[in-house]
Amino acid sequence: MKRFRMIWAGCFLVITVLFLAVNIIQKAEGQDGGPVISVPDETLTVSIEDGEDTLLQGVTAQDGRDGDVTSSVLVESISNFYGDEKRLVTFAAFDSDGNVTKATRAIQYSDYTAHGSPCSTPSAIRQGRRSTWRSWFRPRIAWMGT
Question: What is the pLDDT of residues 30-46, one digit of tens each?
Fold first, then answer.
């Protein structure tokens, strides 16, 4: 039993030393993280017709090992509207080691107008009448001719 514990303790010690050595080497080579994405602080005003290239204006990425990796920056997502009709664009950049970093920027549309309900008539619920799945299908089945 004592020998078994000694083997496990030795394995743990070897793995810990290897882990620390790899981390120290990576930090010395500048591989301690992914690229650094630089995004302007001000809100970008765009048209709803503009593409991703407009959203990427002024966004750059630098990596300690690969140098300029701006060509790897892409638009990962665009959030829902918040506040005074603004949205957040999330950018992602990656380096040759597969490290990915993200950054966000606020955008506002210059030509966006909020639309109302897509229905032309307001919705209504009839009171005093029980609704079942059959009552919902009956008019549609009759329309289909069956």
Answer: 555 789 999 999 999 99
